[in-house]
UniProtKB/TrEMBL annotation:
InterPro entries reported for this sequence: SAM-dependent_MTases_sf, UbiE/COQ5_MeTrFase, UbiE/COQ5_MeTrFase_CS
Gene3D superfamilies xref list: Vaccinia Virus protein VP39
Annotated protein name in UniProt: Demethylmenaquinone methyltransferase
GO MF: demethylmenaquinone methyltransferase activity
Family: Belongs to the class I-like SAM-binding methyltransferase superfamily. MenG/UbiE family.
Binding site for S-adenosyl-L-methionine: T68, D87, D115, S116
Pfam families, per database record: Ubie_methyltran
Pathway field: Quinol/quinone metabolism; menaquinone biosynthesis; menaquinol from 1,4-dihydroxy-2-naphthoate: step 2/2
Any one Gene Ontology BP term: methylation
């Protein structure tokens, strides 16, 4: 990635600091906005991620950049014994903790405040690791992915769900209009943080996807890397192993 996109364009603060502050600020209305900006399709994408993980019958799962924990909650369907949702934003984690408690899932899911670029786990610990809409927020993408590789068991599955950009007409043009005109407007109308939704579309536009992202995963050391574009390519599910 050539240019560094940060939420507040503040050159004196790290991207990580700015990302944590932004997600703390929007945590209260993040879930609602997520449904609005994706027209609810994000629910379907998360279900696909769960299905892929379920097939491998994992016991221990790490959901990196878990945010308010939607994917971690859905991952309970895999029958895993231990699920950890990890995030740097205390605000997002608190919203998630309330949801987990309300669903009586706190015996399976623990929410941990930590940095994906310095994971507090031993090597080869998790059977499966997931990240949904998280990798493009990492300050140092390669460091975050290397840490994930380190704590994943050999043969374990790594599944990423991330925004991507449709390459075919007319979806390409439709997506550009939506992400540059409609998305920031929704952000302005519904969010307390006006920069947040401009950041989300700008960072999506600048982030590698498809074969470029596959190659980053391979460079880090992941094997059997595959990308599966979703809904005209507005999101992609990547799978890999170690
Ligand atoms: C767009 S949200 C996605 C949340 C959730 N996975 C979902 O699908 O709704 C991105 C999350 O990444 C987290 N994040 C960004 N950088 C991180 C890092 N270095 N370590 C851990 N979490 C991080 C943010 O705090 C935020 O909660």
């Amino acid at each position: 990635m050539s240019e560094k996109i940060t939420p507040y364009n503040d050159k004196n603060r790290s991207k990580k600091d700015q990302v944590a502050e932004m997600f703390d600020t929007i945590s209260g209305n993040y879930d609602g906005l997520n449904r609005v900006i994706s027209f609810g399709i994000d629910i379907k994408w998360r279900k696909k991620v769960v299905k892929l993980v379920h097939k491998t019958n994992p016991e221990k799962i790490l959901d990196v950049a878990t945010g308010t924990g939607d994917l971690a909650i859905n991952l309970c369907k895999t029958g895993a014994l231990e699920i950890i949702g990890l995030d740097i934003s205390a605000g997002m984690l608190n919203v998630g903790k309330d949801k987990i408690k309300a669903k009586d899932l706190d015996n399976i899911i623990s929410m941990v405040q930590a940095d994906s670029e310095n994971l507090p786990y031993t090597d080869n610990y998790f059977d499966a690791i997931t990240v949904a809409f998280g990798v493009r927020n990492f300050e140092n993408l390669e460091k975050g992915l290397s840490e994930i590789l380190r704590v994943l068991k050999p043969g374990g599955i790594f599944v990423i769900l991330e925004t991507s950009i449709p390459t075919k007409t007319p979806y390409k043009q439709g997506y550009k209009f939506y992400s540059t005109k409609i998305l920031p407007l929704i952000g302005k109308l519904f969010s307390k943080d006006r920069s947040a939704y401009s950041y989300l579309s700008e960072s999506a536009a600048a982030f590698p996807y498809g074969e470029s992202f596959n190659n980053i995963l391979r460079k880090i050391g992941f094997i059997d890397v595959e990308d599966k574009p979703q809904t005209f390519g507005v999101a992609t599910i990547y799978t890999a192993t170690k």
